[in-house]
């Protein structure tokens, strides 16, 4: 965990404590002991990072390092534009290579985060080369043959995929909003069965990439100086404003981001009947999403039981201090692994104990993307 | 309307185009003609503004001027601290007076916005003096004897209160979030009867007063400079962050802001059975609230009919352009009278046409407070 590096008061504007050269940090091993980690191991898998220069690509490296992920070697892949640039990772120098059809020879695990069209083109090529692809794009998420996995939620979905079998495979990383929502909702679902879920999101700039985070910062400076804000990534002012998620609107009036939450939840829970509606909104926050979630259960579930269930849930931390009005915030979960849950309360608008309202925050770049993908890769080891 | 003054691109940081001296602007009369207005009229009522130096107090003046509200004279009232200061309004100079027990002699209509304790103490004194009090605080909202009024929604609730009867009276202005929500929900409710409503809010700094807006600006500058943000009004970083509304949490786990929405909706709709749940969140936006509203109806209501109903609704404007992804934003409704509604769509999570999702934005200082109060006063004329 990098928590100590990023204080909530001394806010690093790009939301990153490090970039490229991540070789000096220490991290908490899963055992709890602090060490200088170094994942370079002769018997580790051979890795490729596709889109290594992007916000999530960078976070892949950070998370691999933080978690002491073992690897024999790493191929750093990006577009032609970045090819040839140098990068230091865990005391070793790398040259970024252009992604080509030959990039996956000898690669055991490829972590993709370079957009849907890159995944569509190069994912199958990597699989044909015998690589197991963990894909952060939406390209294959709804493909029935591709598992859509949150390791804490549905690890069994990828149980048939084995490293070292010589057979390539695709595994999809769910959308960030879905991951953060289901990290909190699933433990409750297992106990009382969610039959309907109404979600409103408060989504950070990072979901639209590093350039969007930079634009939010630039716009904020401009607005404070009374200047017209630069609108390259978004078509409207983002600073001191919010707007409906910029994903295209479908014929049913939902945007693609919202439909991801609807469809991915059904697939991950393997429950085609679960009813989900979502309203996805972008707020001027850098790198962590918040979600207001209203849950309707088949079986009764009181709020104390819900709190106990969430207390025991892996990857979830409860921040629910009513007396001091302290609940999850995007800033407090930034650069953290766990999804924070608070405002846990019985829903007044449902009779009996069949409803709960909760408020959830999770780091979009980390658990919403890079961490979840690396956790998937860990399950292959 | 002051729309032309405040461009969405050249954002005035305090969200105000004018302050104190509002005598040079022009406005659209309700007739649609443009004139330089001047509400000073011998046969108009005698007004008092309680809390004239606050964000809402200032907006009272702006709205009175914009709407050409007739008045014989205005008493500008505030705390001892502001007493003696001068203020120019519609070409006339005023001296701010300290609010005392004698402030309401000869006052026909008193607009209060100085907090609950001031209203509790001085509201009844004003009523005893024969004034009709329009109170923006929560002090009397749930008092059965006091009408809680949104003029477009439940004007009949105050039909028994008459100006010039010599009898004082109290009328409460609902909470800003309730007003903005019900402006959109009520026309639909009248058509298909809302039985349950799930609301998540995105609330602006202005709801916590002018000092909170200043703190958000100050914090943002500080964070951009890498400094620790000043936390006087809020106990945590607000810039590039969001948090659960700072209102106290009650024993049921809801905060007071959320319970206002639950209880005030029941009272305004005169429907003790309507089921409402709300999650109220503060976002780093200056002066307009947004709300994601999920509606469940007793009778079917398709989205086209809903759009037609909202198109005809007074005080509501539809901003729902799916093709260009243009929907309501806080910035676009800032300093506007109308509540903007968009993202109107059939709720996928409800069978048949019994559910809708909508996204609503309204100026918190204007329709959420000052405008609604002045509209109440207009109904007395």
TrEMBL record, chains A, B:
Reactions performed catalytically: L-aspartate 4-semialdehyde + phosphate + NADP(+) = 4-phospho-L-aspartate + NADPH + H(+)
Domain of life of the source: Eukaryota
Pfam family, any one: Semialdhyde_dh
EC identifiers of the protein: 1.2.1.11
UniProt pathway: Amino-acid biosynthesis; L-methionine biosynthesis via de novo pathway; L-homoserine from L-aspartate: step 2/3; Amino-acid biosynthesis; L-threonine biosynthesis; L-threonine from L-aspartate: step 2/5
CDD domains: ASADH_C_bac_euk_like, VcASADH2_like_N
SUPFAM superfamilies: Glyceraldehyde-3-phosphate dehydrogenase-like, C-terminal domain (SSF55347), NAD(P)-binding Rossmann-fold domains (SSF51735)
NCBIfam families noted in UniProt: asd_B, PRK14874.1
Quaternary structure (record): Homodimer.
Protein name: aspartate-semialdehyde dehydrogenase
Organism from which the protein derives: Nelumbo nucifera (Sacred lotus)
